[in-house]
Amino acid sequence: MTRRGIAVGAFAMAGWMALGVLPPGAGAQAAQRTDARTAASAGARPLPPVSPTPQSISRSGEDATVTGRVLLVVDEHTDAAARDRVVRELEQHGAERVDNVSPNDVSRATAGLLTVRLGPADRPDIADALGDTAVPNRAEGYALRVSGTKPQPEIALGGTDAAGQFYAVQTLRQLFQRADDGWKVAGAQVSDYPSMPLRGAIEGFYGPPWTTAERLDHMDFLGDMKSNTYVYAPKDDPYHRDKWREPYPPAKLAELRELIDRARADHVRFTFAVSPGASICYSDPADTKALTDKMQAMYDAGVRSFSIPLDDISYTRWNCSADAEKFGAPGRGAAARAQVSLLNTVQREFIAKRPGTNPLQMVPTEYGDLTDTAYKQTIRATLDPAVQVMWTGTDVVPPEITNAQASKAAELFGRKVFVWDNYPVNDFARTAGRLLLAPYDKREPGLSDHLSGIVSNPMNQEAASKLAVFTMSDFSWNDRGYDRDRSGRQAALYLAAGDSRTADAVQVFVDLNHMAPTFGSQPWQPQAPVFGAEVERFWQEYAGDAGRAISEFRPSVRTVTQAPAVIRDGVPDKLFLSDASRWLDATQLWGRSMEHGLNTLAAIDAHNASEAAQERKSMDSLAAAASQIMVDPAEQGQHGQVRIGDPFIEDFVSRVDNLHDESMGLPPLRELARGKTATQVSDYDWGGAFPFSADKSVDGDLSDFSTTSGGEAQPWWQVDLGSSADLEKIKIYNRTDCCAERTKDYYVLVSDQPFSGTLADQLGKPGVWSHHETDQAASPTTIATTARGRYVRVWLAATTPVELNMAEVQVYGRVKEG
């Protein structure tokens, strides 16, 4: 344990190690596989880990010392961005002066200085310096060799193209190591190339788009990760979708130009996506021209990659009657014929006729399944083979992507598919209140044989997305060499700027934000796999030896409490700290609450009733404060409580409450509404495709909701608890994706008898307890009550017809046994 390290107990150490994740304070994970015998014979340290994982990396000999003056040998074929980055890295790692010289101007008087040769791998001086290091015959490939044994230290960086040169420098920056006598570069040789041609991110979520500053930041991040693709497709940019025919205003176009220029400097393809499907008339030449005019403006701004997403639209209706005349009645086959007509025209008449453009990309309307249909049959038979087709997997958010699935998708669409992976996107109801930070998983090695690439659809929070996108970039670069746990550690170190203690805290935070939901009921990545196991182990031990269990679990809880401060102190990425701020606040509060919970249990064990009561009060107060931290709708487009380590942390607090009640002879406080009979004044009718029935608010799932028809004034919802109980609190959770403003100015009523008549009839009625709530800006709203009753009703006060939407209603009370 380092002097400044976070304390780790026996429980925590076992948990972190079991998942292949280093415990806080334990330092960096083992480096990538190296030639140990070569390293030992050279008396050198193991090679540092490099991300993305290279195809081949081994020790070449001794480390090279970074001298105060460095020669950088470049020529007219050296990539400018690679040259600028290598100068920056050298200056940050000990070089006081970097001289640019041509291959023919390396003076003998410079013997002893570190010499760095950067450019095409076939340049004679670079080829000679690379020696037997293999140069991949692949696009974006590179070879790198570090030698500290020649008369002077030398580094050769050779790319098969300009991007390869840039990526060689991205590997070099990870080979710097601090030594007692200054900076050295690890003696490595690397032969590397990407397994997948396309790698990166698609800004394709619903909700507030990223800012220009966030997009610029992400371009630089993608460059660091050797990712070559950014797709501009924010659903809530009106000029991308609703106003696709309209040109961008000058100020917005200037912002886009800045992004395009930055992307070029980072060797990232800025892919401009325009989504006309909701209103285009496929048979109208004027609409096709409006589309290509929009694309031409972006071509003039420097864009060379284009996408036409046709997702999330209907193919059961046309936007104009002329389409029915040309393509037939609405349906799968007709929709595909219309789309192919447009896409082939754009590919052949626009893309193919402009210099430097990459093949057109498209997102099909059927983007998330493996069912053969008339739509897919038409696509594979008639869509221009050059057009790249995107696919999200077997669902919108797939729990896995296997080689067999990818192979089938390629068969169905008649080409390798380009995966739009909806991770770690958090714009749908089941992700409300969450950051999705878990490392990439459940995507099979070997997918590079079946895919043209993978792009991540990240979160509304750009910088917080880096932890997951880092690991996705690692996978797409070298899927067969991907190690989930190693990549997760590397992502934490990247965010922590190499500081092990900060990276430890980041991994604690990742574990508490590990949940990755699908559109179904089961997540494809679990919440808090480390800390959740620690909590469960604690309760098992507590039943046998309370004192020992409390003592051994306390360091684990303290780790959670301390992690936010360590992250804020050690992570230099201010955008990340801003994105994660509410979750960091909640983590600290929940950790402190749990510490007081342990104190409560210790006091109960010591039969100290007054201390137990005081510690419980502190625990409950901190838990209530944590529960009131809400997401920012302006940032995420959703409402609701920030979720951290759930349900393990909140269940811990509830269990301590019940144990304290038990110590005082009270029956436990229980949630009484779950699964009970719920009714409402009317049901919203959406054709039965997704029921919004009253029971959705007592099913324990915060991502679905009940909704009344909207046709009544003062609509109501109620639950029958089955029998009367002494109630203490009622918690009302709003629908998370919208409509929070509707559930305010309402009454909560409790009665032992069924309700009848109007709202006015119930107010002040003997035997009916009521509470008037006028502030429902966020959820949950917790309403304290001392009522006794069987029926609980939520009743809007609105005197005009309106929907009543609620995600969940929880009723807590005490029921005496027997």
Provide a descriptive summary of the structure in words.
This protein is an alpha/beta fold and 818 residues long. The protein has 4 domains: 1-33 and 496-666, Hyaluronidase post-catalytic domain-like (Methane Monooxygenase Hydroxylase, Chain G, domain 1); 56-192, Chitobiase/beta-hexosaminidase domain 2-like (Chitobiase, domain 2); 198-495, Alpha-Beta Barrel (TIM Barrel); 670-814, Jelly Rolls (Sandwich). The strands form 5 sheets. Strands 11-12-13-14-15-16-17-18 form an 8-stranded parallel barrel. Strands 19, 20, 22, 23, 24, 25, 26 and 28 form an 8-stranded antiparallel β-sheet that branches. It has a 7-stranded mixed β-sheet with strand order 1-10-6-7-5-3-4, sandwiched between helices. The protein is flat, with a radius of gyration of 30 Å. The two termini are 53 Å apart. Residues 30-42 have a biased composition (Low complexity). InterPro entries: FTP1, Galactose-bd-like_sf, GH, Glycosyl_Hydrolase_84, Hex-like_dom2, HEX_bac_N, O-GlcNAcase_cat. Pfam families: F5_F8_type_C_2 (PF22633), Glyco_hydro_20b (PF02838), NAGidase (PF07555). This is Beta-N-acetylglucosaminidase domain-containing protein.
